[in-house]
Every structure is written in C-alpha cells, then in structure tokens.
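Aggregate trends can hide what the representation actually does to any particular protein. This step matters because it turns folding into a mapping between discrete strings. For completeness, the protein is quoted in full, as a sequence line and a line of structure tokens:
=====
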Amino acid sequence: MHIPTHIMSGWCLSNLIPKLGPRERLMCMIATTIPDLDGLSILGGREAFLNWHHVACHNLPFGILACAILALLAGRSVWAFMLYLLFFHLHLLLDVFGSGPGWEIYYWWPFSRWAFDNSHLSWEFYSWQNISIAGGLLVWTILIARLKRRTPLEALMPDLDRQLVALVYRPKTV
C-alpha cells in the first residue's frame, strides 16, 4: 500500500477515538506508517530493497520496540502502547492486501524466516482498489478538517493546520 494511504488511515481512525489529543493522533499516524522504514533499504540498491522491504520493520519485535518508543514520547500509559501496536498492525493488514503479490510479511523476524504469503489475498500495488481506498481516506480527511477543524498537520505545523482548515470550513452565516 502507498505511504500516504498508511498515513491517512492512521489519521482517520485515530479521529474516531475521542480521548486522543493532537500528539496521540500524530503517534497513531507514525505507528501506522513506521513499518515502511525498511523501504529505506532502496538506498542500498534494488537488491537490498527486495531483500529487506517487508522484513526488517514489518515484524512483531520491531512493532513492540517502535510502539514502546512512541508511547514514551507521547508520555502515555500501557493503553497508548497497545493502541499504537494496534495501529502498527493496521499497516501490516493493509500491506497484506495492498502491496501486491509476492510481498510476504516476515512477522517473527529476526527469530524466524517464516513468512505470511499474501499472494492469494493481495491485489496489484497500482490497482483500482488501492486508488479507491486512498481516495476514500482523502475524502474522510477533508471531512475531518471541515467537521472537527483539524488536519494531520495539527501537531507538527499548527499555523498551516489552521490555514488548511480555513479552506474547508465555512461557518454558516445567518
């Protein structure tokens, strides 16, 4: 699945949890996207990418470590850690379907080379399904900006967040 789709999935779903603040919603977006850090293996060339993407960071040990760090950064409890771990697994679920055939998930790596084979479940990376999901999440993101007056930039760039909200939010005039 595409990185912007992962970001929007974390943002949209985190907005369904009323008690989350801007920092926690940001951490949910990061948790939903952080497995793709192993995509940086492309810097080592095509072979490195093919060998390490969906391996180094798409696994439970990395998810536990990354989500523990996110929970500490958010200054929150075990509840936050569990929430971030759930969002981490959302990424894996989206990749099972949306990464294309042949991109296994090495869930127990580095302890095991067993891989979950998604070939019978997935659609092509550039497919109508991925484009439709991304489009739906984009519409949902815009609706959140209009209805809740916040964007995915609320914690990182509050001024730009306010400007973007102003573009989509028009109060009713009497």
Notes: The chain has a mean pLDDT of 92.
